[in-house]
Amino acid sequence: MTQSPGSPRRVINARGTYTPLGVSRASPGVAAAVAQVLQQFVLVDALHDAVGTQLARWAGAEAGAVTHCTAASLTLAVAACMAGTDAGRIAQLPDATGLPAQVVLPASHAVHYGHPLTTAIRLAGARPVLAGTAQGCTVGELARAVVPGQTACVLLVSSRLVQGEPVDLAGMVAAAHALGVPVVLDGAAQALRVQALLATGADLVLVSAQKYLAAPTAGLVLGRAARVQAVRAQEQGIGRAMKPTKEALAGVAAALQEHQALDLPAWAAQQQARVAAFVAAAGALPGVQARAEPDPTGLPLHRARLALASGAAAVALARQLRDGTPCIWVMDHEAQAGVLWLELAPLTDEEIAETLQALKLLLI
Ligand SMILES: *Cc1c(COP(=O)(O)O)cnc(C)c1O
């Protein structure tokens, strides 16, 4: 594979859909669709309508739309709940005077995906209100934080980044609806589970196009038709700075088409076999206990778990892999506890072999 200019070191990304590493690799078909539209004029609204229809069909939602990225989707979903399609309110934001401006979310969902999620809420002019504690939040605690007429929406997150006890998503959606408040659900890395997220009853579900769909960077908004329309209406307001590019729209259309042609159960079984083979080889190395484990958020993926003799050994191994050539990035969020995780799905067989070879050289 050729090296892009400006990236002198080749990266093997076993860390998952990690933004600082370029998130994902698009297929040749997606890259071609992007290259083609970059050389054309196009009716952008008509292209957006068509992609929205395609998205809605794929997810089984009433409607779909595209934004610049999921962080933008969060801001625009909140803005949509505050302003609807009212031109005056849209023009007024981010000045929230006289508008419902509280956004209630479980404290354990105030995650940091590169910036604090609460920053994305504040950018709409809204004020985040945290319910419960970092350890967890009950449906009752969430409901008590909602003030009808002042709360614009309830915001929930489905992600590996969420800490504490898992919350009852569907129960929280039902409680918010009983109080007349809409619900936005951020599932950026959960595109492969979008139907399950919509089944919680959330009004808007946000997923990333560039994570597990390997499209160009874009935010996908799915859900109730009126709410999705209100998100698109924000393009005349604060959403101008968060709009999807024509190349993102064309890339999303191509990526979605390829994704729908994929036999997901067969793909998942193939990935599981690759992880099993990797774990068998890695587990034979000195000082390593290896096993496969399913993704903790329910994605149809297994990950490789490597347990080292100590936290220091795991931290050192992750650093040595990163400092090598090529540089190899693994998940190190549990390194202090002696555990490294690898996500192998986006890697080629050659890259998996190179990773095993690097482990061998460092551990033997
Ligand atoms: C990645 C991520 C985001 C941000 O997505 P971008 O498309 O990079 O803006 C938001 N929320 C969660 C939970 C994420 O994992």
Structure notes:
This protein is of the alpha/beta class. The chain contains 13 helices and 12 strands. It has a 7-stranded mixed beta sheet, with helices on both faces. It has a 3-stranded antiparallel beta sheet with strand order 9-10-12. Strands 1-11 form a two-stranded parallel sheet. Strand 9 and strand 10 form a beta hairpin. The protein is globular. It starts with 10 loop residues before the first strand and ends with a helix. It binds pyridoxal-5'-phosphate. The site of pyridoxal-5'-phosphate has 14 residues, from helix 3.
SSE blueprint and pairings:
Elements: E1 11-14, H1 28-38, H2 44-59, E2 63-67, H3 70-83, H4 87-92, E3 102-106, H5 117-122, E4 127-131, H6 139-145, E5 151-157, H7 169-178, E6 183-186, H8 194-198, E7 204-208, E8 219-223, H9 225-233, H10 246-261, H11 264-282, E9 289-294, E10 302-307, H12 311-323, E11 327-330, E12 339-342, H13 349-363
Parallel strand pairs: 1-11, 3-4, 3-5, 5-6, 6-7
Antiparallel strand pairs: 2-8, 7-8, 9-10, 10-12
Helix pairs in contact: 1-10, 2-10, 3-9, 6-7, 11-13
The chain binds pyridoxal-5'-phosphate.
Write out key terms for the chains shown:
364 residues; alpha/beta; seven-stranded mixed sheet; three-stranded antiparallel sheet; 13 helices; binds pyridoxal-5'-phosphate
Distance between the termini: 29 Å
H/I helix tally: 13
Q: Which strands sit side by side, in order, in the main sheet?
A: 2-8-7-6-5-3-4
Q: Report the uncertain regions.
A: none
The sequence of SSEs as H and E is: EHHEHHEHEHEHEHEEHHHEEHEEH
The percentage of residues in β strands lies in: 15-25%
Structural class computed from helices and strand pairing:
alpha/beta
- Quaternary organisation of the protein chains: single chain
* Ligands: pyridoxal-5'-phosphate
Please compute the radius of gyration using only Cα atoms. Answer: 21 Å
Helix share, percent: 40-55%
Characterize the largest beta sheet: strand count, sense, and whether it forms a barrel: 7 strands, mixed
What average pLDDT do the residues reach? 96
Q: How many strand units?
A: 12
Tell the overall outline: globular
